[in-house]
Task: structure prediction
Amino acid sequence: MTFIDLCDVPPKELVAMLNECEVRAHLIKHELFTVQTAYEWVSRKAEMNAIKGCYIQAIDVDGQLAGWCGIQPDGDDYEVAIVLRQRYWGAGISVFRVLLDKAKSMGHKEVVLNLLSTRPKYDSLVRRASKVEIRQIHGGCFTSYFIPL
Result:
């Protein structure tokens, strides 16, 4: 597994990944991506990636786009985001650990993991979290785990 700049991923590959039904089931409802909207999304993520404390990357597994991940602003906090194609869901824990290490090395004291209400509550995250909240974010209901580093 390697992390690469989102700007280096062809937009058509991103569109295919972001529009997969299994991926969309765990994201806020939005229109299907087009090459143009994927390009605009990557541009916004690149701007965000330039902000101190942020880290946003595509995930490559054996030359295949597995998904994207990042540490990005979430109000006054920083969110850990992980979006993986279904066939790579088993890599989520490894990506999560890498992001926690990265966040700690960047000086973050805590990060938030927001999981859409379509996901079950994870006991391991509850045990690790300093607090767990149900929040409305961009029109979706999320379970937010505040993870101390």
